[in-house]
Amino acid sequence: MKTVTRTAFSNIRANKSRNILTGIAIFLTTLLLFVIPGIGFGVVNLEFAAVNQVYPTFHGLYRDVSPQTAQNLKASDRLESMGLRCDPAVMVNETYTISMVYLDETCAELNKSELAEGHFPQKENEIVVSEGLLKAMGLEGRIGDTIRVPYQPMTNEGLDYSREKDFVICGMTADSQINEDKKLYSAFVSEEFVKQDFPMTDISYRVYFRLPTVSSATTDDMGRGDERYCCCL
Predict the structure, then answer these.
(1) DSSP letters of 111-167?
(2) Helix then strand then coil, % of the chain, to nearest 5
(3) Which tens digits make up the pLDDT trace of 11-55?
(4) Cβ neighbours, 10 Å, residue 72
């Protein structure tokens, strides 16, 4: 045993430089095996976080959903979160398409809808507009000002007769070049406006939803209608 030990130590002393290089090589290899996957996962997670900060985070949507069906969906345990959108009317304008839109809080979050200032409408006569929208309508105003808006309700038969209503500006959105290029704007209105001005039979929602987070979930599962990720209307 002593002979073997002396032989081993003699070999180490005789090949000191090579043994040091071998040890360094093993250390670096081990380090790379841990560091590279860690960096890779970190980059992927960072990319996902950046995407979630900019792009909408809903997984899908249902169109033309009745109020009763929307309530049934809210009671479902197959959806992680669910938001409602309703487009009850359009502003009367010959050049621009200006939708009047109601979003609930969850839908606003899922669509990354944010205001430049102010708050989303809560009262029946509150509205959120933008400077470009006001200009397109030939109006002027800031938060707290009252504007008179001509609009046409959307019914099951199509656009109804034109009406006018006084709204108080409660918030402002930022304009983009796309709005002007496409001649397309949106004004946010409240749920109270929808319920008070429109019959329940004419109200339909777009339901935006997120599915529960499951580690084994894939886009293929969602796309082909895996029963774990389906919610019946």
Answers:
(1) TT---SEE----STTEEEEEHHHHHHTT----TT-EEEEEEEEEETTEE---EEEEE
(2) 40, 30, 30
(3) 555 555 665 666 676 766 776 666 666 555 444 444 444 444 445
(4) 14
Task: Quote the tokens at residue 83.
Answer: 């938001």
Two tokens at 232?
């019946």
How many other CB atoms sit within 10 Å of the CB of residue 210? 17
CA distance 88 to 186: 12
- At 90, give phi and psi (nearest 5°): -130, 145
**Structure tokens that stand for 4 in this block:** 């073997």
Instruction: Round to whole Å and give the CA distance between 87 and 102.
Output: 6
Which residue, chain included where needed, has tokens 């502003």?
91
CA distance 170 to 188: 10
Q: Please give the Cα distance from 115 to 99 (Å, whole number).
A: 17
pTM score over 0.85: no
